[in-house]
Amino acid sequence: MNRQDLKTIIYAEKKKDETNKYKHKICVCCGAGCISSGSEEVMKKLQEEIKTRGLENEVEVIPTGCMGPCNQGPLMKFLPDYNIYQKVDCSNISTIVQSQLIEKKPIEDLLLFADSREKPFIDARDDPYFKKQLKIALKNCGHINPERIEDYLVHNGYQALDKVLFEMSPEEVIAEIKQSRIRGRGGAGYPAGLKWETVYKYVNDQKYVICNGDEGDPGAFMDRSVLEGNPHRVLEGMAIAGYAIGANKGYAYIRGEYPLAIKRFELAIKQSRKLGLLGNNILGTTFSFDVEVRIGAGAFVCGEETALIASIEGKRGTPRPRPPFPAESGLWGKPTLINNVETFAAISPIINNGGEWYSEIGTPKSAGTKVFALAGKINYAGLIEVPMGTTLREIVFDIGGGIQNGEEFKAAQTGGPSGGCIPAEHLDVKMDYESLISLGSIMGSGGLIIMDKSSDMVDVARFFMEFCMDESCGKCVPCRVGTRMMHDLLQKICDNKATQIDLDRLEELAVYVKETSLCGLGGSAPNPLLSTLRHFRQEYENRILQHD
To answer: Which among 85, 76, 71 has a CA at the least distance from the CA of 47?
Structure first.
């Protein structure tokens, strides 16, 4: 397929969309969270109800990806009115259809947020949950059918790839990414443009692009939801990256616990190949690029890029010393670009709208938006995307609806097992890379666990240390032995059997492990411990045995 063929298909799909015979579209969330709550049965029942009432020529029902507030699912969105119903089940489908479609009256008691907001927002976009968000990586998740490439094309899909292939040189693409100031969303926050430029400069007969979808942090599900809700966006970003650095092969490494994400991404690959958007001579150009999926086997350490590379190569997933960095010697010793799912999902908007547009969002040092997975003791747990620099208070109380049962906020744990805990006195901290580091935490991949007064911070530290201990690959002594020793000391404190000597030893060990571990897992494993000691030391001291 050449460029003109693509334009013809897009024009035809847009024309079909504009002249759509349907008066209403009902989007049923079929992301993993809502599916676990029964959304597939809800959608089937809804389709039957529509057919029974003779509305099949007026109402279109489609499955979508994540809409956001996962703990309120199954979710059902009526367009064009933008009424969203929460906790829908098969028993109230008939009532909703009768009131919403026949009588034209939304059922306010069943609308999203009706159970805790002062008033139900009939148009959900007026609620702070959506109003304070800015969706770039999550654009169109919850709005399109992720299993139809035509839905993606109608919403400017693959227009960025078309633009770079016919209007931009690889150097110009990299310059645009650098101008955007986007930093890798996998956790380290390294400038993506500089990484792309580094790989581009290495001359080699073969280069690779890897999408890191091995999301293993407890409480994190950002990448899963993007892959489930808009897989073509990630695929397009990978293809643009391949063009920019001179690679013709890509791998998407997705954790095995994400079967739906794997299924939809593999389907997206097949659809793109069929239309000539992947494979040889894309759109009639000399550029060739193809993608394969590699499934992770559940090892948290494989989120580290050198361990991930080893796993793709069929080896045991253990990190190796750097340098050389993957940009120089990565997959099978060739220059390799590795970015995570969220980073690739932001690439096509940057190309379409310009790097300057993206750089003006967020803060001077942390540009763009960030996807967070809200979990824990919060009213609206789920997926959000906000501009960098949005405060923790806005996220918890304006978007997240506050703490469950009206309890008092105690702390937020950011960055997964590598992150730290932020106490109530820092609720107004800006959620950007530098601000979180100054508090002893990190952005990480975007997990955000909210805790109330019932949370025991020593036990929180013990939980994350146990996770790191179990997930250590065992290659280096500081991580293999150090995490176990720290866990045992934390358990001793939790059991009220520790002394001041044990607490001192715990702090000393944390510094050793942080400074001497081989990879990021061991180097960041002490973070939850050190941050809780910094902000909640009294809880540790209250458990220490006192001796005369």
So the answer is: 76
Q: How far is CA 415 from CA 25, 281, 445, in A?
A: 37, 41, 6
Distance CA 8, CA 181 (A): 34
Three-state SS letters, 50-85: HHHCCCCCCEEEEEECCCCCHHHCCCEEEECCCEEE
Euclidean distance between CA atoms 61 and 46, whole angstroms? 8
pLDDT at 548 over 50: no
- What pLDDT does 453 receive? 93
Of the three residues 417, 434, 452, the one that is the final residue of a domain is 452
Buried b (16+ CB within 10 A) or exposed e, 446-485: bbbbbbbeebebbebbbbbbbbbbebbbebbebbbebbbb
| Cβ(258)–Cβ(229) below 8 Å | no
* Confidence (pLDDT) at 153: 94
- CATH number of the domain bearing residue 118: 3.40.30.10
pLDDT tens across 185-207, in order?
987 789 999 999 999 999 999 99
- Looking at 75-157, list the stretches that DSSP marks H as alpha helix, in order from N- to C-terminal side: 93-97, 128-131, 149-154
- Contact predicate 115/232, CB 8 Å: no
Residue 535: give its domain's CATH number. 1.20.1440.230
Residues 117-143, mean pLDDT to the nearest whole number:
87
**Distance set, CA 138 to CA 44, 229, 267, 371 (Å):** 26, 8, 19, 8
Q: What is the CATH number of the domain that holds 298?
A: 3.40.50.11540
Domain that holds residue 73: 22-124
Q: Mark which of 407, 437, 452 sits at the end of a domain.
A: 452
With beta carbons less than 8 A apart as the criterion, state whether 433 and 426 touch. no
pLDDT over 80 (residue 305): yes
**Of 69, 79, 233, 225, the residue nearest 151 (C-alpha):** 233
pTM (two decimals): 0.93
**pLDDT tens digit sequence for 88-98:** 999 999 999 99
